[in-house]
Amino acid sequence: RRAALFEAVEIAKRRGHKGISSFVNGVLRSVQREGVPSFADIADPIERLAVETSHPEWLVREWTDAYGFEAAEQICRIHMIPPKQTIRVNRLKNDRDTLLSRLNEAGIEAEEGDLSKDAVKLLKGTIASTPFFKEGEVTIQDESSMLVARALGPERGETVLDACAAPGGKSTHIGELLEDTGKVVSLDLHQHKVKLIKEAAGRIGLSNIEARALDARKAGEVFEPEQFDRILVDAPCSGFGVIRRKPDLKYSKTPEDSARLAGIQLAILNEIAPLLKTGGTLVYSTCTMDPTENEQVMHAFLEEHDEFEADPTLAERLPEKAAPYVKDGSIQILPHYFGTDGFFICSMRKKGSQ
Question: Which position among 76, 164, 237, 287 bears the catalytic label?
């Protein structure tokens, strides 16, 4: 026991500073004297789950209200497991089977993804420093995120707006699905993030992406009505679906953030709605699991815009595994479903035919 305590303090010294090591030493000495409290002593199951899995209690209560305690518990527990690293195959340069064979020949153990047909799951090795990544054969992306461009369903020669595009993963996927034809107009509020979109398109070798700095809430001042065949709004959100990748998110957000973000999300949707052609597809997505930012925003938008309707064909464009979770033109993917990030995807159609 003394050896374990000593080693923990030494690690704290190496990884932090004297103050950190003193804090760790104090906590461990207290545990040594008084023992470790039992989680069983906490009567409230939600409070107990929050403490046991290191989540804010208010967040666990929200997930319990939205999905039930069992699902909330599964969400909390999978957040304690490191995420899988997945890559998206660029089908303009490779098919998945060929890529898998070449990766394994290069000493990178990989297999087919669990959900997306564009996904390869890495089991051993890294990809970012390899020619596969540098030459644009693959993009690092979570499988849930890969479903967004598929849900949008772009077809050759179309003009697509990606209203909140940085760092460019979904824009480049759309560009690939367009087979480098047509145009993807990719917007972001910040110029330094627009640079990331351009770099991603350049790495992959796409010529059909036009990236520009613009607040999506002002898009109507720049673009003509009914200019785009399809529009993606991958909106700024609370990000609770990516807690495994960014664990500090749990404690950097407040219950008020979702309501504030929902206002921004709806403002973006309202602004870009007139830019979509009659018969066109609008996809709204977030990497969160809060109904305030997801279903409630979708329903509020549809109530304000009777020219739009929920898309009954969404399930046809998603993987067979995901299709059972589609309801009323939308899907909420929770992280324990497929071991992916939590994601919400909604597809809406502007009434009429093209």
Answer: 287
